Amino acid sequence: xxTLINKFFAKKSDKIGIIMYNKDQIISKTFKEMYEIAETLFxxxxxxxxxxxxxxxxxxxxxxxxxxxxxxxxxFNITSSDIIFWGTPLSFxxxxxxxxxxxxxGATIAMVAHHIYIxxxxxxxxxxxxxxxxxxxxxxxxxxxxxxxVIEKIFSNTKLRILALGGEVFxxxxxxxxxxxxxxxxxxxxxxxxxxxxxxxxxxxxxxGDDVPIGTCLDDTIIKVYDENNLEINNxxxxxxxxxxxxxxxxxxxxxKTDVPNFRKTGDIILIKNGNFxxxxxxxxxxxxxxxxIGLAEIEETIFTHCSLVSKCIWSNKYNKILTFxxxxxxxxKHTRDRILEKIRNKLLHILSEASFPDYFDLLQNFPxxxxxxxxxxxxxxxxxxxxxxxxxxxxxxxxxxxxKYLGLDTKHLNFLKNxxxxxxxxxxxxAIQLIQEFKxxxxxxxxxxxTEALLHDTFSNCExxxxxxGRRNILKRTMxxxxxxxxxxxxxxxxxxxxxxxxxxxxxxxxxxxxxxKDNNNDVRIAVGSFCNLFAVLDESGKELxxxxxxxxxxxxxxxxxxxxxxxxxxxxxxxHCINFEDKQIVWQFKTKDKIQSTPVxxxxxTSIIVGSYDKHVYNLCVENGSIIWKTGVDGCVCSNILIDxxxxxxxxxxxxxxxxxxxxxxxxxxxxxxxxxxxxxxxLSKYQQILVPxxxxxxxxxxxxxxxxIWKFEINSNLFSSLVCFQNTVVFGCHxxxxxxxxxxxxxxxxxxxxSTDSKISSxxxxxxxxxxxxxxxxxxxxxxxxxxxxxxxxLKKGSLPEEVFSSPVQYQNNIYVGCRDNNLYCLTF
Length: 832
Known about the structure:
Layout: H1 2-8, E1 17-21, E2 26-30, H2 34-41, E3 50-52, H3 54-57, H4 68-76, E4 83-85, H5 94-105, E5 108-110, H6 114-117, H7 120-130, E6 135-138, H8 140-143, H9 148-156, E7 162-166, E8 184-190, E9 197-203, E10 216-217, E11 222-226, E12 232-233, E13 236-244, E14 249-251, E15 262-273, E16 276-282, E17 286-289, E18 292-295, H10 296-307, E19 311-316, E20 321-327, H11 334-349, E21 360-364, H12 377-387, E22 392-394, H13 395-407, H14 414-417, H15 429-443, H16 449-457, H17 460-468, E23 472-474, H18 479-496, E24 500-506, E25 516-519, E26 525-530, E27 535-540, E28 545-550, E29 560-561, E30 567-571, E31 576-581, E32 586-592, E33 602-603, E34 609-614, E35 618-623, E36 629-634, E37 644-646, E38 649-653, E39 658-663, E40 669-674, E41 684-686, E42 691-695, E43 700-705, E44 711-716, E45 726-728, E46 731-735, E47 740-747, E48 750-758, E49 768-772, E50 775-781, E51 786-791, E52 797-802, E53 812-814, E54 817-821, E55 826-831
Parallel strand pairs: 4-5, 6-7, 7-8, 20-21
Antiparallel strand pairs: 1-2, 3-14, 8-9, 9-10, 11-12, 11-13, 13-15, 15-16, 17-18, 19-20, 22-23, 24-55, 25-26, 26-27, 27-28, 29-30, 30-31, 31-32, 33-34, 34-35, 35-36, 37-38, 38-39, 39-40, 41-42, 42-43, 43-44, 45-46, 46-47, 47-48, 49-50, 50-51, 51-52, 53-54, 54-55
Helix pairs in contact: 4-5, 13-15, 13-17, 15-16, 16-17
């Protein structure tokens, strides 16, 4: 520790005292000002030097006054057995508290490199699985980069005993998580100009209310609140002013003041209620609009109260607008994002006043952060600027902004992180594809295949070189043109529709899941399907509702029916697998994984257990009677495609690009094959040849030996492939993002030929093949919702129809009826 400090602060100065710890004593030594060091690291930021004497933060007692590091050490009960995460940047004064608490108490301090700090998944693994920290001080925006699953684990299954959040309004969402008795939760408040924290409040079950107070003042700290008329108040809303007789800091070249005590305006709005102080946000978060005072923090609180979503509202002086950004960890397609934003707008229209209604909404997976871990409002304004369609924009800047947007980074950090890949910095396969798609949308570019491959494998620096070759492009105005184009498409769909809708059933949200058609114990046809609003329903052949249940999470997978035809098994995006007795209308058991379930459960060959894959990077084999684990096997990525079982082999694919063959009985890995891109579609088995065909998202189909995983051949398409593969006779049928439906003829050690049928848009769903009047029909549905009935032999279009909105559900068939979900919230039963 002393070696590290000496390395950075070798020169002496009379202005700052830094504490170093050795075995026998605590000594005070002077070094060059810390905050000048921070200027070197972040030279483009505003340079402010805070002259902070050691007595402000805590070398020892000053005239019977306990200073912050000593007080917090006592409050947190820090001992030599603690492991403290020193993650706050040195340019942010709480870093001194972390350091000094460790030095004063002989505790261990854990530090990580910056590229690890900004990668939530890796940071969690290092802090809680490797170093096993016990004390964590963090800005709320940094803490909330972890998703709900991770926060739940931190609160219930780690050695963490102190979590202290400060620097922003305390996030109420944290209080929704159940935490183990050994974990203590604190709210900290203070300002740099008065040397870090000024108050501390411990949150217990008894103290939890509508708001979290900032707590009691530390020794020799005074807080006063003044209203707009500069009168001190003891009830109501006003600006906080903090003072102290001993804790005096000086800004830049400010002269030493003799006033005792020394007071500083904080710019913070404090509410005094029933003797408690509540932090309500920054004074500059209150703006004048249409003659009304608008509290941006109040808008954020309203969105959380009524939508259960964390948001950030900013006022843009440049555009004279209120811009609102909503945090949504599970990013969806553009259409789904638009629907979510529309629902948020509609709800807020009835709650917010006209003057406070935001001009702009957007969804973000992570908020961009400043080096201090607070939300970077300048970057948010840049996101809005990037969304405007009337600007000529440099594609290089667009790519940099999108890279940072999807990773929650600041562009100022890219020079330090240019030799790291998208995945090393916390990116996911899905967000990589979303980044590429948004890049295409913003630049009108259709030539980014090289960039797609680089993003999945290379560093930012290599991706940047590819983007630079694109030059400059005009972002096209799409408003009126798109409207007229949509009208043309709607009219065209009306003219060509040859398909009849027998009935439709409203599931209240997008239906991307593929429905299940099965027969119950009375041999009656039943249809089971779920939607994004957690609604799961079982219908009869006429569309009549027989069973409806709101489950624990969104539903994007197909259910499975038990051999006895009584139980349905369905996974949800909250990671729960439900076993439902649909005859008794009861949930029999639930099994919780640690991330979402999108794959369809499948029964083992003997029917006594069921296997399902999860985004938590595991494959589970569960007892069908009670959901207990028979075995579980870890894999290298998320499992989102369906599991296949054949001859004591369980085949599972991952978003890391691997195909696993597991033992059905024991779950151990028999073999593993890894390709060069994620796998989203379900493979298919060619049992005749003892082969398995695996589709990768970059458009390569790998033919592997199902016995040992050896590569036999591969077939390449120059486009993205999300469709699953369907085996029919000696062919494989699938849809592709190049707008084609492919029929690939295979024969043992190679493929013979390929033919294709062109559609009107990308295809993500899986085609259906069935017989109708001695004709083999291929049914394919484009993402736009156009349905194609194609002669399998001749590829002649037999009939064509359309649905009102986009379709990502795959069609299924019973007799002459086709069942498919749509993003207009309905399940459709079609005939022709």
